Amino acid sequence: MNVQTSVKASRETNEVTETTEMAKETTLLSPRFYTTDFDELDRVDVTPIRESWDEIMEELRSDPNKNHFKKNDDWDSVDFEAIEPELRKELIDFLVSSLTAEFSGCVLYKEMKRRGSNKEICELFSHMSRDEARHAGFLNDALREAGLAVNLGFLTRKKKYTYFKPKFIYYATYLSEKIGYARYITIFRHLEKNPDNRIHPIFKWFKEWCNDEFRHGEAFALLMKTDPKLTSGINKLWIRFFLVAVYATMHVRDHARPAFHKALGIDIDWYDDRVYRVCNEISRQIFPIEIDLDNPKWKRNLGRIREAFFALDKANKRGGFIGFIMKVAPGIKALSAFISLYLMPMKKNQVPDNPRLAPTF
After folding, report:
1. Residue 353: helix, strand or coil by DSSP?
2. For the purposes of burial, counting CB atoms within 10 Å of the CB of 223, is it exposed (0-12), middle (13-18) or buried (19 or more)?
3. Fold (CATH) for 3-291
4. Which of 43, 55, 125, 216 has CB atoms 3.0–4.6 Å from 177's, for a disulfide?
């Protein structure tokens, strides 16, 4: 089944599966669906970055991964029922969370293509929507194999949408795409050296996949480059906020999947630090600041946030009045730790005139 057929099948069914409900959830840690001011996006003028813009558009038009997201002889069948229960649960959570994040981009980009009139911006989002649809469809094929496909049509209609101004979309999505690249390439390189830890065949597709993520991040870097105000002045405070929020969210999510990472043979703290450092190095192309990962406060407060979120999760499961009371202390702890991370001194970067990079990590 190809990606287009996969997405269509998910839209046509009326079944609301357990995984569909998982994808539909809106929490502080779950991937969100976004909407924005499409008229403001329509007014973007790419003239200041014309040469770089034309380069990336040529790459997107060439569609280098057109034939990549298809099962072939490298796809090994997986007996989900034979997987140890906790690992199975965390693997499914990883696949559903990844699918939701990819499909979120597809929905947002497709809406810009539909509602916009700026030909250049619409073409960009058309290409990126195409890529994200393939990613989501391929992930859903993996879930469908286990009888766990997500109903993407239902998800589009029923999942809560969060409104962000375009600049917040730029910051959040740029980091999402770049951190996605860093995560996927780190896992791919690790499993190249340790193929016995490859618990699912989908990881074999990560190299080309993460290059799509990298290319999308490049596009958002260029969008930010069209207006110097987006990365200067008070907006540096917003960049700081999104850096801390995205990195901290990743830390908590990863530590919520200990069996998954153990099966891959990956130490979570090593993995997260590696991803942060790759993402820091990449983001120097456009962000004038970066998190000081060697500051002792960084790891200490990440740990406090993780502990607080796990306590909040326990309180949510308890429910009722007692559950509500149980949320107070960890809620204060999480907020205090986040503020401490936000107020940490940041490293300064000299942003280059041309932000384009190559995925060489």
Report:
1. coil
2. buried
3. Ribonucleotide Reductase, subunit A (1.10.620)
4. 216
Beta strands in 119-271 (DSSP E): 161-163
What secondary structure, in 3-state letters, does 327-346 show? HHHHHHHHHHHHHHHHCCCC
The counts of H helices and E strands in the chain are: 14, 4
Amino acid type, 169: I
Q: What is the pTM of this model?
A: 0.90
With residue 35 as reference, give the H or E element that holds it: strand 33-35
Structure tokens at 221: 């870097």
